Amino acid sequence: MRTKLLAIAGATAVTLFLFPSSAQAGHSWGGYHWARTANPFTLQLGDNVSSQWDSALSGASADWSRSTVLDTRVVAGLSNPKNCRGTTGRVEVCNSTYGNTGWLGIASISITGGTHITQGTVKLNDTYFNTPQYNTAAWRNLVTCQEVGHTFGLDHQDEDFNNANLGTCMDYTNDPSTNQHPNQHDYDELASIYSHVDSTSTLGTAAAAGASVGNSPESWGSLVSGSRADRHSTYVRHFADGTTVVTHVIWA
């Protein structure tokens, strides 16, 4: 992974920077970012996936590590894939047959101090990926790349599934063939998000589990954008300890 320049909860309130469904000049997810004292920084991705997902996870890690400010490193997972609880200071990536939940994948980030990410989780739902429609390398690559991208603080470039592909995994589509990897706009946005450094760091290797959410909308908190009919949603849940968990959902 080459040398860099940059790098899917809050205090009393969370401000979401939400975009309409056309391609955007910027696609930061609410200004959320990992606190760190220098760039480039390395973010660990916990491997809690089965062998059929290994290629998608390693590919997403390699793709995102082309950023000038962010490297990712796939490490041994610290979570049970069935509940995929988060680990402070890193991202846990999991797959399982989560059931007929309606969603293909979800990315959750825990926020403190308003914008600083303290942990992330990605869940990939084999109940749908085991069906003929989604049981392809292209769909696995797109959803893994996109959900991991959310855990850096990236939003979507386009939220209309019927628009022409933008050539990025951060673009919703009905045809994943050309949307399996980040594009230059994603790397530019990461450079913008991580153009500053912080006085403290939320990165680490501690095994402590923080606030986590489950597999159903009831556990994700309040719906703040999108809908199941739109095939994408964002939820926010506030916890008593001052943590907020923000969750992006892609519906099947």
Major sheet description: 9 strands, mixed
Share of helix, binned: 10-25%
Total count of strands? 9
Report low-confidence residues grouped into runs of 5 or more.
1-25
Output the number of helix runs. Answer: 5
Order of helices and strands: EEHEEEEHHHHEEE
Based on the coordinates given, report the CATH architecture: 3-Layer(aba) Sandwich
Name a few traits of the molecule.
single chain, 252 residues, alpha/beta, Collagenase (Catalytic Domain), nine-stranded mixed sheet, 5 helices, 9 strands, globular, signal
Structure, briefly:
InterPro entries: MetalloPept_cat_dom_sf. With 252 residues, the protein is an alpha/beta fold.
Plain-language structure description:
This protein has 252 residues and is of the alpha/beta class. The protein has a single domain, classed as Collagenase (Catalytic Domain). 18% of the residues lie in helices and 25% in strands. It has five helices and nine strands; from the N terminus they run ββαββββααααβββ. It has helices spanning 51-64, 126-129, 137-150, 184-193, 217-220; strands at 33-34, 41-48, 70-76, 91-96, 103-112, 116-125, 222-227, 232-238, 244-251. Strands 1, 2, 3, 4, 5, 6, 7, 8 and 9 form a nine-stranded mixed beta sheet that branches. Helix 1 crosses helix 3 (137-150). The model is unreliable at 1-25 (pLDDT under 50).
